[in-house]
Amino acid sequence: MAAPWDALASTSVGAVATILGIVVGGFVGRRSQNQQWLRDTQTAAYGAFLREFTAVEIELREAYLDDRPNNANWPPFNAALTSLSLVATRDVANAAGDLADAIGRFALLVADRDPKNRDDLQRIMAELASGQLAFVNTARRSLDGTQQSIDRQLGGPPPWREIEPYAPAPRSGD
User: Fold this and answer.
1) Which residues contact 152 (CB under 8 A, 6 or more apart)?
2) Which residues contact 65 (CB under 8 A, 6 or more apart)?
3) Chain center to CA of 133
4) Which of 4, 43, 97, 110 is most deeply buried (CB count within 10 A of its CB)?
C-alpha cells in the first residue's frame, strides 16, 4: 500500500515543482522583457534628444554667425526632451535639463541685439560641448553600468578651432 502513496507523493511534488517553476520563470522572464523594453526605449529617447539638440545647435550657431534671427525647429526638440523625461533616470534627466538650459542661453545670445561677441560664442560653445559629453556619458552609464565614459565628444557642437575663423572679429575693446 505504501507504493501508491509514494508514487502519488512524488508525482504531486513534481507537479507542484513544475507549476512553481512556470510561475517563477514567467515572473523572471516578464521582468527581463520589461527591463529590455525600458533599455530599448531609453536608447531611442536619448538618441532622439541628441538628434534634435544637434539640429537646434546648428541653426543657432549659423544664426549667430550670420547675425540673423534663428529659425530653430523647437517643437521636435521639446518633444524629444519631454519623451526623454518619461524613461530617463534622474541623472540623465538632469544632464538633459542642463543641456536644454544651455541651448536656451544660446537662443538668448542669438536674439540679443547687441553686437555679437566671439568670447560669448566661445563660452557658450564650450558649455554646449561639455554638456553634450556629460549627457552622453550619463546616458551610457544608465544603459549599462559597465560602460566606461568617453573622453572626447563625437558629433554635436564643433570644436572652437572649427568655429573661430567664422566668429565675429574682436571688438576694439576686446
Assistant:
1) 133
2) 121, 163, 166, 167, 168
3) 10
4) 110
User: Three-class SS of residue 119?
Assistant: helix
C-alpha cell at 163: 568655429
Helix (H, G, I), strand (E, B), or coil: what is residue 173? coil
Instruction: Tell me how far apart the terminal alpha carbons of the chain are, to the nearest angstrom.
Output: 104
Q: How far is CA 154 from the centre of its chain?
A: 14
What is the full per-residue pLDDT of the chain (174 aa) written as tens digits? 556 766 666 676 666 666 656 665 665 566 677 788 888 889 999 999 999 999 999 999 999 999 999 999 999 999 999 999 999 999 999 999 999 999 999 999 999 888 888 889 999 999 999 999 999 999 999 988 787 877 777 777 877 777 777 777 766 554
Q: Are 128 and 99 in contact (CB under 8 A)?
A: yes
Rounded distance, CA 5 to CA 95, Å?
65
Per-residue b/e over 79-101, b at no fewer than 16 CB within 10 Å?
A: ebbebbeebbeeebbebbbbbbe
